[in-house]
Every structure is written in structure tokens, then in C-alpha cells.
Amino acid sequence: MRHGARWGYMLLALATTARAGDIDTCIDASEAGQLARDKGQFRAAKQSFQACAREACPGEIRRDCAGWLDALGKRMPSIIVRVLDADGAEVLDASVTIDGVEIVKHGIAVELDPGDKALRVTAPGRASVEQRARVVEGERARVIEVRVARAAPAASAVPAASTPPAPPARVPTASYALGGVALVAAGAYAYFGLRAKGEVDDMRATCAPACDAARVDAAKRDRDVATAMFVLSAASLGGALAFALGRDTSSSLRGPALAVGVTPTGAGAVLRSTF
Fold this sequence. Notes:
The protein has about 280 residues and is an alpha+beta fold. It is built from 6 helices and 9 strands; from the N terminus they run H-H-H-H-E-E-E-E-E-E-E-H-H-E-E. It has helices at about 1-15, 20-40, 40-50, 60-75, 175-205, 215-245, and strands at about 80-85, 95-100, 100-105, 110, 115-120, 130-135, 140-145, 255-265, 265-275.
């Protein structure tokens, strides 16, 4: 049927002074407008009908398009979006989008195609609001109110509790003391041990086996003192390590006692402790 109307328009146009290019443009716009209108695409139809209602179009086309445009205007729905705060006051710095397209100024009627629409409202310092609305054909200047609340203050970040650095390991005083004893005892062990060995070697070379008894006893005492110093050094070193490694000496090791002495028969060392 539209093809017949197209030929009719073209025949009528032959009697006018309109150019052929303008005639084709006007006919195309009239047909596109009717198709868009029938699909519910009212805004696109409006643009097409406005194009074919221009003075440049032949009179018959212009009159039809103007009539369709007038009828479409009565069917075209429109809405007015009002953005309010919790007290009902206008929020003037709000931004409104409908189906993702921003409205330049809210509070003014906006023509839309009929159907369900997605509204989104944002404003500085306020929580964004998303709302759906059904726009009905023929409903004009429908007011839709959207209320936006103040945005909740951001929760202050609580700094995570930091674990204090572990204090540097401290070597107990007892470890230093026992270490010093071990060092001194080791020196004494070396001194008396070497002296006893030198005396024995000399007696073997000069007077053995009939050496003076006093000389023999002196060598034995040096040997016994060296042995006692060795035991003392080893025990002191073990105690120093035990304290340094954090052994609980208050309960498991009570009062180590070390006795070192030289008797007429030789030297001796006794280490006593309770575990």
C-alpha cells in the first residue's frame, strides 16, 4: 500500500516545482516515519515526519506528514523527573539518565517512546538511586519523583594492630661469667699441662728411673691441676651455653658448686649441681 502511495506522491510531484532529489527525500522520510510509528518508536517517527513536513516537500506529502505529526504528538508520552532530598527539597546538582542517556536538565518534560524505562540518579555527596518506570502511550508530563539520601560516611580504616618487634636476644650475665671462667681455666690447663709434660720429658732424659721424689711429685701435681682445669673449663662452657639458650636454671638447675683444690697427693676439681 505504501508503494502505491509512493507512486501517487511522485505523480503529484510532477506537477510541482520541487526537485526530484527533494521529492525522494520527502517520500523516504514519510515512509520511515510511518514504519517507526507502527513499531512504537515515536521519537524516531517524529523526526521523520518533521523532515517530510518541510516547505521543500510537495504539498500532498507535506500535508500528510503534518497530520501524522499532529496525531503522534497526542500519543507521544512524556515524563518530568524531580529529584528531591529526604526533606522534599529539590536537589539541583543531580544528574539523571534514562536508559543510559543523560537528561540535560531535569524538571523539564522529556518525550519518550512508550515502555519500561531505567532511571538512574546521582548527586555529589548522595547515594545513587536506580528506579524503573513504565511509560504509557498518551500519558503526558507525568511527574516521577526520585528521593536521594545523603551518602553514608565512609568507615574510617582501623589500622591493623602491628606486632611489636621482638626484643633482641640478651645473653645472661651468668653466661659471660661462666664463659670467662672457661677461658681462664682453658689457659691454666694449657699452662700446667705443658709444664707437666716438659718436666716428665726432662726426667726421662736425665734421671729416669731414679729421679728425685719431690721432682716427680711436682710433675704429678702439674698434671692433676691441668686435668682439674680441663674439667673446670668444660663445665663452665656447658653452663654458659645452658644460660645463653634460655634454660630455666631457677627450677631445673640449682646452685652449681665447683670446688678446685690442690692436696698433698695432687690437685682435684669437683662440680656439684642438682637437676
